[in-house]
Amino acid sequence: MLDSVQDAWRLIEREIPPAAPAEKGLPLALCDGLVSTTAIHATGDSPPFDKSLMDGYAIRFDDYAAGRREFDILEEVTAGNTATRELTAGGTIRIMTGAPLPTGADCVIPVELVTSQTAITVTLDAPKARAEGNLARQGQAIRKGDLVLPAGTVLGPAQLGALAEMGVSSVLAIPRPSVSIVATGDELVPYEQVPGPGQIRNSNEIMLVTQARRAGAAPVQSTIARDTRADLMTAIREGLKSDFLVLSGGVSAGVLDLVPSVLAECGCEQVFHGCNVKPGKPIWFGRLTAERSPDGRPHWIFGLPGNPVSSMVCFELFVRMGIHRRRGIQPSQPLMHSARLTAPHVSRDSRPTYFPAVITPSEQGFLARPLAWQGSFDLQTVALANGFVLFETATERQAGEEVPTLILDR
Ligand SMILES: Nc1nc2c(c(=O)[nH]1)N[C@H]1C(S)=C(S)[C@@H](COP(=O)(O)OP(=O)(O)OC[C@H]3O[C@@H](n4cnc5c(N)ncnc54)[C@H](O)[C@@H]3O)O[C@H]1N2
Ligand code: MOO
Fold it and tell me: Cβ(203) to ligand 1 under 6 A?
Protein backbone atom coordinates (compact mmCIF):
# COMPACT_ATOMS: atom_id res chain seq x y z
CA MET A 1 0.00 0.00 0.00
CA LEU A 2 1.27 3.50 -0.84
CA ASP A 3 2.04 5.82 2.08
CA SER A 4 0.44 8.91 0.62
CA VAL A 5 -1.63 10.53 -2.09
CA GLN A 6 1.57 12.29 -3.19
CA ASP A 7 3.20 8.92 -3.88
CA ALA A 8 0.20 7.97 -6.02
CA TRP A 9 0.45 11.28 -7.90
CA ARG A 10 4.11 10.66 -8.66
CA LEU A 11 3.35 7.20 -10.06
CA ILE A 12 0.39 8.38 -12.14
CA GLU A 13 2.54 11.18 -13.54
CA ARG A 14 5.32 8.71 -14.33
CA GLU A 15 2.96 6.27 -16.05
CA ILE A 16 0.83 8.60 -18.15
CA PRO A 17 2.54 10.84 -20.73
CA PRO A 18 0.63 13.58 -22.55
CA ALA A 19 -1.01 12.26 -25.74
CA ALA A 20 0.11 13.27 -29.22
CA PRO A 21 -1.93 15.98 -30.97
CA ALA A 22 -4.63 15.02 -33.45
CA GLU A 23 -3.13 14.48 -36.91
CA LYS A 24 -5.04 17.36 -38.43
CA GLY A 25 -5.76 20.78 -36.99
CA LEU A 26 -9.05 20.89 -35.07
CA PRO A 27 -11.56 23.65 -35.81
CA LEU A 28 -11.63 26.32 -33.09
CA ALA A 29 -15.23 25.49 -32.17
CA LEU A 30 -14.10 22.03 -31.01
CA CYS A 31 -11.07 23.22 -29.05
CA ASP A 32 -12.51 24.47 -25.74
CA GLY A 33 -10.40 22.98 -22.95
CA LEU A 34 -7.87 21.34 -25.27
CA VAL A 35 -4.12 21.96 -25.05
CA SER A 36 -2.40 23.26 -28.19
CA THR A 37 0.88 21.52 -28.98
CA THR A 38 2.51 24.17 -31.14
CA ALA A 39 3.36 27.80 -30.54
CA ILE A 40 1.02 30.10 -32.47
CA HIS A 41 2.33 33.36 -33.95
CA ALA A 42 0.43 36.46 -35.01
CA THR A 43 -0.58 36.44 -38.67
CA GLY A 44 -1.00 40.21 -38.61
CA ASP A 45 -1.01 43.24 -36.34
CA SER A 46 -3.61 43.79 -33.64
CA PRO A 47 -5.28 46.19 -33.91
CA PRO A 48 -4.94 45.85 -37.68
CA PHE A 49 -5.16 49.65 -38.14
CA ASP A 50 -4.96 52.79 -36.00
CA LYS A 51 -8.39 53.12 -34.42
CA SER A 52 -10.54 55.30 -32.22
CA LEU A 53 -11.40 54.03 -28.73
CA MET A 54 -14.22 56.55 -28.27
CA ASP A 55 -17.18 58.06 -30.10
CA GLY A 56 -16.06 61.65 -30.63
CA TYR A 57 -13.94 63.93 -32.78
CA ALA A 58 -10.54 63.13 -34.26
CA ILE A 59 -8.25 66.15 -34.21
CA ARG A 60 -4.59 67.10 -34.49
CA PHE A 61 -3.48 67.56 -30.91
CA ASP A 62 -1.13 70.39 -31.91
CA ASP A 63 -4.21 72.43 -32.89
CA TYR A 64 -5.73 71.95 -29.45
CA ALA A 65 -2.41 72.62 -27.66
CA ALA A 66 -2.11 75.88 -29.62
CA GLY A 67 -5.44 77.02 -28.14
CA ARG A 68 -7.95 76.08 -30.87
CA ARG A 69 -11.36 75.02 -29.52
CA GLU A 70 -13.62 75.38 -32.57
CA PHE A 71 -13.01 72.88 -35.37
CA ASP A 72 -14.44 72.49 -38.88
CA ILE A 73 -16.24 69.16 -39.30
CA LEU A 74 -14.75 67.66 -42.48
CA GLU A 75 -16.66 64.36 -42.55
CA GLU A 76 -17.89 61.44 -40.43
CA VAL A 77 -16.36 57.97 -40.21
CA THR A 78 -18.04 54.95 -38.62
CA ALA A 79 -16.63 51.51 -37.73
CA GLY A 80 -16.21 49.42 -40.87
CA ASN A 81 -15.52 52.45 -43.06
CA THR A 82 -12.52 54.65 -43.69
CA ALA A 83 -12.29 58.44 -43.99
CA THR A 84 -12.04 59.66 -47.58
CA ARG A 85 -9.72 62.52 -46.75
CA GLU A 86 -6.80 63.51 -44.61
CA LEU A 87 -7.31 65.59 -41.49
CA THR A 88 -5.95 69.06 -42.11
CA ALA A 89 -5.11 71.87 -39.67
CA GLY A 90 -8.13 73.25 -37.82
CA GLY A 91 -10.35 70.41 -39.00
CA THR A 92 -11.96 67.50 -37.22
CA ILE A 93 -13.51 64.26 -38.40
CA ARG A 94 -16.44 62.93 -36.42
CA ILE A 95 -15.45 59.36 -35.54
CA MET A 96 -17.07 56.34 -33.88
CA THR A 97 -15.47 53.76 -31.59
CA GLY A 98 -13.61 51.18 -33.67
CA ALA A 99 -13.41 53.34 -36.80
CA PRO A 100 -9.99 53.77 -38.46
CA LEU A 101 -8.23 56.94 -37.37
CA PRO A 102 -7.99 59.41 -40.30
CA THR A 103 -4.50 60.19 -41.53
CA GLY A 104 -3.21 63.28 -39.74
CA ALA A 105 -5.23 62.75 -36.55
CA ASP A 106 -3.45 61.93 -33.30
CA CYS A 107 -6.14 62.55 -30.68
CA VAL A 108 -9.84 61.77 -30.19
CA ILE A 109 -12.00 64.03 -28.02
CA PRO A 110 -15.07 62.18 -26.67
CA VAL A 111 -18.46 63.46 -27.79
CA GLU A 112 -19.37 64.27 -24.16
CA LEU A 113 -16.83 67.15 -24.26
CA VAL A 114 -18.62 69.02 -27.04
CA THR A 115 -19.73 72.40 -25.66
CA SER A 116 -21.52 73.68 -28.79
CA GLN A 117 -22.09 72.59 -32.34
CA THR A 118 -23.38 73.80 -35.72
CA ALA A 119 -23.89 71.80 -38.91
CA ILE A 120 -20.29 72.48 -39.91
CA THR A 121 -18.35 73.25 -36.72
CA VAL A 122 -17.90 71.82 -33.27
CA THR A 123 -16.45 73.40 -30.09
CA LEU A 124 -14.54 71.13 -27.78
CA ASP A 125 -13.44 71.60 -24.17
CA ALA A 126 -11.16 68.77 -23.08
CA PRO A 127 -8.86 69.80 -20.22
CA LYS A 128 -7.23 66.35 -20.15
CA ALA A 129 -6.65 66.11 -23.90
CA ARG A 130 -3.27 64.70 -24.88
CA ALA A 131 -1.50 63.48 -27.98
CA GLU A 132 -2.42 59.81 -28.63
CA GLY A 133 -5.45 60.15 -26.32
CA ASN A 134 -8.39 57.76 -26.83
CA LEU A 135 -6.87 55.85 -29.73
CA ALA A 136 -4.96 52.60 -30.28
CA ARG A 137 -2.19 52.29 -32.84
CA GLN A 138 -1.85 49.45 -35.30
CA GLY A 139 0.02 46.55 -33.62
CA GLN A 140 -0.26 48.07 -30.14
CA ALA A 141 -1.57 44.75 -28.68
CA ILE A 142 0.53 42.41 -30.82
CA ARG A 143 2.67 42.63 -33.96
CA LYS A 144 2.73 40.27 -36.91
CA GLY A 145 5.03 37.35 -36.11
CA ASP A 146 4.91 37.82 -32.33
CA LEU A 147 3.95 34.89 -30.12
CA VAL A 148 0.17 34.73 -29.55
CA LEU A 149 0.10 31.52 -27.47
CA PRO A 150 3.01 29.31 -26.41
CA ALA A 151 2.81 25.54 -26.99
CA GLY A 152 1.04 23.86 -24.10
CA THR A 153 -1.63 26.54 -23.64
CA VAL A 154 -5.05 25.39 -22.47
CA LEU A 155 -7.51 26.82 -24.99
CA GLY A 156 -10.39 28.62 -23.31
CA PRO A 157 -12.65 31.53 -24.22
CA ALA A 158 -9.96 34.24 -24.33
CA GLN A 159 -7.46 32.06 -26.17
CA LEU A 160 -10.00 30.99 -28.79
CA GLY A 161 -11.11 34.59 -29.23
CA ALA A 162 -7.49 35.71 -29.65
CA LEU A 163 -6.93 33.06 -32.32
CA ALA A 164 -10.15 33.99 -34.12
CA GLU A 165 -8.98 37.62 -34.16
CA MET A 166 -5.81 36.42 -35.88
CA GLY A 167 -7.73 34.41 -38.46
CA VAL A 168 -6.34 31.13 -37.07
CA SER A 169 -9.26 28.76 -37.70
CA SER A 170 -7.76 25.43 -36.66
CA VAL A 171 -5.22 24.31 -34.06
CA LEU A 172 -3.02 21.27 -33.54
CA ALA A 173 -4.30 20.14 -30.15
CA ILE A 174 -4.46 17.06 -27.95
CA PRO A 175 -7.88 15.43 -28.33
CA ARG A 176 -9.99 14.36 -25.35
CA PRO A 177 -9.09 10.90 -24.07
CA SER A 178 -11.88 8.34 -24.16
CA VAL A 179 -13.11 6.79 -20.91
CA SER A 180 -15.18 3.68 -20.22
CA ILE A 181 -16.91 3.24 -16.88
CA VAL A 182 -17.72 -0.19 -15.46
CA ALA A 183 -19.70 -0.42 -12.21
CA THR A 184 -19.27 -3.87 -10.70
CA GLY A 185 -21.47 -5.75 -8.24
CA ASP A 186 -24.21 -8.38 -8.09
CA GLU A 187 -26.21 -6.03 -5.85
CA LEU A 188 -26.54 -3.25 -8.43
CA VAL A 189 -29.71 -2.42 -10.31
CA PRO A 190 -30.08 0.44 -12.82
CA TYR A 191 -31.21 3.54 -10.92
CA GLU A 192 -34.51 3.63 -12.78
CA GLN A 193 -35.46 0.31 -11.13
CA VAL A 194 -36.76 -0.55 -7.66
CA PRO A 195 -34.12 -2.62 -5.84
CA GLY A 196 -35.08 -6.02 -4.41
CA PRO A 197 -33.86 -7.36 -1.05
CA GLY A 198 -30.13 -6.72 -0.63
CA GLN A 199 -29.95 -4.77 -3.88
CA ILE A 200 -29.04 -1.09 -4.32
CA ARG A 201 -29.30 1.36 -7.17
CA ASN A 202 -26.20 1.93 -9.27
CA SER A 203 -25.34 5.49 -8.28
CA ASN A 204 -21.65 5.37 -9.17
CA GLU A 205 -22.03 4.96 -12.90
CA ILE A 206 -23.74 8.28 -13.62
CA MET A 207 -21.54 10.00 -11.04
CA LEU A 208 -18.33 8.75 -12.66
CA VAL A 209 -19.52 9.43 -16.21
CA THR A 210 -20.27 13.00 -15.12
CA GLN A 211 -16.89 13.34 -13.42
CA ALA A 212 -15.14 11.99 -16.52
CA ARG A 213 -16.87 14.53 -18.72
CA ARG A 214 -16.02 17.34 -16.32
CA ALA A 215 -12.40 16.22 -16.26
CA GLY A 216 -12.33 16.88 -20.00
CA ALA A 217 -12.51 13.27 -21.16
CA ALA A 218 -15.01 11.77 -23.58
CA PRO A 219 -17.02 9.09 -21.76
CA VAL A 220 -17.76 6.61 -24.54
CA GLN A 221 -19.56 3.82 -22.71
CA SER A 222 -20.64 2.70 -19.28
CA THR A 223 -22.09 -0.53 -18.02
CA ILE A 224 -22.76 -2.80 -15.03
CA ALA A 225 -20.68 -5.97 -14.68
CA ARG A 226 -21.67 -8.81 -12.37
CA ASP A 227 -19.24 -10.33 -9.88
CA THR A 228 -18.26 -13.26 -12.07
CA ARG A 229 -14.93 -13.66 -13.79
CA ALA A 230 -16.64 -14.13 -17.15
CA ASP A 231 -18.85 -11.04 -16.89
CA LEU A 232 -16.01 -8.90 -15.58
CA MET A 233 -13.69 -10.09 -18.30
CA THR A 234 -16.19 -9.21 -21.03
CA ALA A 235 -16.75 -5.74 -19.55
CA ILE A 236 -13.03 -5.14 -19.01
CA ARG A 237 -12.07 -6.26 -22.54
CA GLU A 238 -14.71 -3.94 -23.98
CA GLY A 239 -13.67 -1.09 -21.64
CA LEU A 240 -10.02 -1.49 -22.62
CA LYS A 241 -10.88 -0.12 -26.07
CA SER A 242 -10.92 3.33 -24.39
CA ASP A 243 -7.82 5.23 -23.32
CA PHE A 244 -8.99 4.98 -19.69
CA LEU A 245 -10.99 2.23 -18.05
CA VAL A 246 -12.53 3.20 -14.72
CA LEU A 247 -14.13 0.47 -12.61
CA SER A 248 -15.95 0.87 -9.33
CA GLY A 249 -16.18 -1.87 -6.72
CA GLY A 250 -14.53 -5.20 -6.22
CA VAL A 251 -11.06 -4.01 -5.26
CA SER A 252 -10.91 -4.71 -1.49
CA ALA A 253 -10.66 -7.99 0.40
CA GLY A 254 -14.07 -9.67 -0.13
CA VAL A 255 -14.58 -13.08 -1.74
CA LEU A 256 -16.07 -11.42 -4.81
CA ASP A 257 -13.45 -8.68 -5.07
CA LEU A 258 -12.25 -10.06 -8.38
CA VAL A 259 -11.30 -6.88 -10.22
CA PRO A 260 -7.49 -6.94 -9.70
CA SER A 261 -7.11 -10.60 -10.67
CA VAL A 262 -9.35 -10.33 -13.76
CA LEU A 263 -7.48 -7.20 -14.84
CA ALA A 264 -4.25 -9.21 -14.54
CA GLU A 265 -5.80 -11.98 -16.62
CA CYS A 266 -6.58 -9.38 -19.29
CA GLY A 267 -2.91 -8.40 -19.47
CA CYS A 268 -3.08 -5.33 -17.24
CA GLU A 269 -0.12 -4.65 -14.96
CA GLN A 270 -0.59 -3.23 -11.50
CA VAL A 271 1.24 0.02 -10.68
CA PHE A 272 -0.17 0.28 -7.16
CA HIS A 273 -2.97 -1.22 -5.09
CA GLY A 274 -3.96 0.66 -1.96
CA CYS A 275 -3.21 4.15 -0.71
CA ASN A 276 -3.15 5.60 2.77
CA VAL A 277 -6.17 7.85 2.28
CA LYS A 278 -9.76 7.98 3.45
CA PRO A 279 -11.98 7.40 1.65
CA GLY A 280 -10.36 5.32 -1.05
CA LYS A 281 -7.86 3.00 0.63
CA PRO A 282 -8.22 -0.01 -1.73
CA ILE A 283 -7.73 1.96 -4.97
CA TRP A 284 -6.02 0.04 -7.80
CA PHE A 285 -4.10 1.67 -10.65
CA GLY A 286 -2.43 -0.03 -13.57
CA ARG A 287 -1.68 -0.03 -17.27
CA LEU A 288 -2.13 -2.10 -20.35
CA THR A 289 1.01 -1.41 -22.35
CA ALA A 290 0.89 -0.81 -26.10
CA GLU A 291 2.79 -4.10 -26.60
CA ARG A 292 0.17 -6.11 -24.73
CA SER A 293 -2.84 -4.21 -26.01
CA PRO A 294 -4.90 -5.72 -28.88
CA ASP A 295 -5.11 -2.27 -30.52
CA GLY A 296 -1.40 -1.48 -30.09
CA ARG A 297 -2.17 1.59 -27.96
CA PRO A 298 -1.50 2.08 -24.23
CA HIS A 299 -4.45 2.14 -21.80
CA TRP A 300 -4.73 3.01 -18.12
CA ILE A 301 -7.01 1.45 -15.58
CA PHE A 302 -8.33 2.77 -12.30
CA GLY A 303 -10.15 0.33 -10.02
CA LEU A 304 -12.03 2.58 -7.60
CA PRO A 305 -13.44 1.32 -4.31
CA GLY A 306 -17.18 0.74 -4.68
CA ASN A 307 -18.38 2.87 -1.78
CA PRO A 308 -19.89 5.87 -3.56
CA VAL A 309 -17.86 8.52 -1.73
CA SER A 310 -14.69 6.46 -2.12
CA SER A 311 -15.31 6.24 -5.87
CA MET A 312 -16.07 9.93 -6.07
CA VAL A 313 -13.05 11.09 -4.05
CA CYS A 314 -10.67 8.68 -5.81
CA PHE A 315 -11.87 10.04 -9.14
CA GLU A 316 -11.19 13.61 -8.02
CA LEU A 317 -7.79 12.76 -6.52
CA PHE A 318 -6.43 10.29 -9.05
CA VAL A 319 -8.46 9.68 -12.22
CA ARG A 320 -8.98 13.35 -12.96
CA MET A 321 -5.25 13.86 -12.62
CA GLY A 322 -4.55 10.98 -15.02
CA ILE A 323 -6.95 12.47 -17.54
CA HIS A 324 -5.43 15.94 -17.14
CA ARG A 325 -1.98 14.47 -17.59
CA ARG A 326 -3.04 12.76 -20.84
CA ARG A 327 -4.65 16.01 -22.00
CA GLY A 328 -1.35 17.83 -21.43
CA ILE A 329 -2.68 20.07 -18.65
CA GLN A 330 -0.09 21.31 -16.16
CA PRO A 331 -0.03 20.98 -13.25
CA SER A 332 -2.17 17.88 -13.45
CA GLN A 333 -2.58 17.36 -9.69
CA PRO A 334 -5.66 18.70 -7.91
CA LEU A 335 -5.16 22.23 -6.62
CA MET A 336 -5.59 22.68 -2.87
CA HIS A 337 -6.77 25.94 -1.32
CA SER A 338 -6.19 27.02 2.24
CA ALA A 339 -9.33 27.77 4.29
CA ARG A 340 -10.23 28.52 7.93
CA LEU A 341 -12.42 26.10 9.82
CA THR A 342 -15.71 27.58 11.02
CA ALA A 343 -16.05 24.89 13.73
CA PRO A 344 -13.71 22.60 15.69
CA HIS A 345 -13.18 19.12 14.25
CA VAL A 346 -11.84 15.91 15.74
CA SER A 347 -10.49 13.30 13.32
CA ARG A 348 -9.77 9.93 14.94
CA ASP A 349 -8.91 8.18 11.73
CA SER A 350 -5.50 6.64 11.18
CA ARG A 351 -5.63 7.77 7.52
CA PRO A 352 -5.46 11.33 6.16
CA THR A 353 -9.11 12.06 5.41
CA TYR A 354 -10.83 14.12 2.72
CA PHE A 355 -13.88 15.25 4.69
CA PRO A 356 -16.95 16.75 2.93
CA ALA A 357 -17.39 20.46 3.65
CA VAL A 358 -19.01 23.63 2.44
CA ILE A 359 -16.27 26.06 1.43
CA THR A 360 -17.22 29.69 0.94
CA PRO A 361 -15.23 32.79 0.06
CA SER A 362 -15.07 35.58 2.65
CA GLU A 363 -13.11 38.80 3.06
CA GLN A 364 -10.58 36.84 5.13
CA GLY A 365 -10.17 34.14 2.44
CA PHE A 366 -11.99 30.82 2.24
CA LEU A 367 -14.03 29.45 5.16
CA ALA A 368 -14.66 25.70 5.50
CA ARG A 369 -17.61 24.15 7.35
CA PRO A 370 -17.25 20.37 7.71
CA LEU A 371 -20.59 18.55 7.33
CA ALA A 372 -22.02 15.75 9.51
CA TRP A 373 -20.59 13.06 7.24
CA GLN A 374 -21.26 9.44 8.15
CA GLY A 375 -18.59 7.71 6.04
CA SER A 376 -17.83 6.31 2.59
CA PHE A 377 -21.41 5.14 1.98
CA ASP A 378 -22.85 8.61 2.72
CA LEU A 379 -23.10 10.27 -0.68
CA GLN A 380 -26.13 12.28 0.44
CA THR A 381 -23.95 14.51 2.63
CA VAL A 382 -21.38 14.92 -0.14
CA ALA A 383 -24.22 16.08 -2.38
CA LEU A 384 -24.55 19.10 -0.04
CA ALA A 385 -20.80 19.81 -0.07
CA ASN A 386 -18.74 21.73 -2.61
CA GLY A 387 -15.42 20.33 -1.51
CA PHE A 388 -13.38 18.47 1.07
CA VAL A 389 -11.20 19.48 4.00
CA LEU A 390 -8.03 17.42 4.27
CA PHE A 391 -7.58 16.39 7.91
CA GLU A 392 -4.26 14.76 8.63
CA THR A 393 -4.06 11.56 10.70
CA ALA A 394 -5.83 11.69 14.09
CA THR A 395 -5.94 15.45 14.61
CA GLU A 396 -7.97 17.86 16.67
CA ARG A 397 -8.52 21.17 14.92
CA GLN A 398 -9.97 24.35 16.42
CA ALA A 399 -12.34 26.82 14.77
CA GLY A 400 -10.27 29.42 12.91
CA GLU A 401 -7.39 27.06 12.14
CA GLU A 402 -6.09 26.91 8.57
CA VAL A 403 -6.68 23.65 6.75
CA PRO A 404 -6.04 22.51 3.17
CA THR A 405 -9.18 22.04 1.08
CA LEU A 406 -10.08 20.61 -2.29
CA ILE A 407 -12.82 22.65 -3.97
CA LEU A 408 -14.93 20.82 -6.54
CA ASP A 409 -15.68 22.21 -10.00
CA ARG A 410 -19.15 23.68 -10.33
N1 LIG B 1 -11.79 -6.84 5.14
C2 LIG B 1 -11.76 -5.67 4.52
N3 LIG B 1 -12.89 -5.17 4.09
C4 LIG B 1 -12.89 -3.96 3.48
C5 LIG B 1 -11.71 -3.25 3.36
C6 LIG B 1 -10.51 -3.82 3.82
O7 LIG B 1 -9.42 -3.26 3.70
N8 LIG B 1 -10.60 -5.04 4.38
N9 LIG B 1 -11.75 -2.01 2.82
C10 LIG B 1 -12.98 -1.28 2.98
C11 LIG B 1 -12.95 -0.04 2.27
S12 LIG B 1 -11.98 1.18 2.91
C13 LIG B 1 -13.70 0.18 1.18
S14 LIG B 1 -13.72 1.73 0.45
C15 LIG B 1 -14.54 -0.83 0.58
C16 LIG B 1 -14.31 -0.91 -0.94
O17 LIG B 1 -14.70 -2.12 -1.36
P18 LIG B 1 -14.78 -2.57 -2.88
O19 LIG B 1 -14.09 -1.68 -3.79
O20 LIG B 1 -14.42 -3.98 -2.92
O21 LIG B 1 -16.29 -2.32 -3.20
P22 LIG B 1 -17.53 -3.26 -3.02
O23 LIG B 1 -17.31 -4.19 -1.91
O24 LIG B 1 -17.84 -3.80 -4.34
O25 LIG B 1 -18.59 -2.17 -2.62
C26 LIG B 1 -18.48 -1.40 -1.46
C27 LIG B 1 -19.82 -0.74 -1.19
O28 LIG B 1 -20.17 0.12 -2.22
C29 LIG B 1 -21.40 -0.24 -2.80
N30 LIG B 1 -21.34 -0.03 -4.23
C31 LIG B 1 -20.52 -0.66 -5.08
N32 LIG B 1 -20.73 -0.25 -6.33
C33 LIG B 1 -21.70 0.65 -6.28
C34 LIG B 1 -22.36 1.43 -7.27
N35 LIG B 1 -22.05 1.35 -8.58
N36 LIG B 1 -23.32 2.28 -6.87
C37 LIG B 1 -23.65 2.37 -5.56
N38 LIG B 1 -23.03 1.67 -4.58
C39 LIG B 1 -22.09 0.82 -4.94
C40 LIG B 1 -21.53 -1.69 -2.49
O41 LIG B 1 -22.86 -2.12 -2.53
C42 LIG B 1 -20.94 -1.77 -1.12
O43 LIG B 1 -21.88 -1.35 -0.13
O44 LIG B 1 -14.27 -2.08 1.15
C45 LIG B 1 -14.20 -2.09 2.59
N46 LIG B 1 -14.08 -3.43 3.02
O1 MOO C 1 -11.31 3.76 1.87
MO2 MOO C 1 -12.84 3.33 2.20
O3 MOO C 1 -13.11 4.39 0.95
O4 MOO C 1 -12.52 4.28 3.66
O5 MOO C 1 -14.35 3.61 2.75
Answer: yes
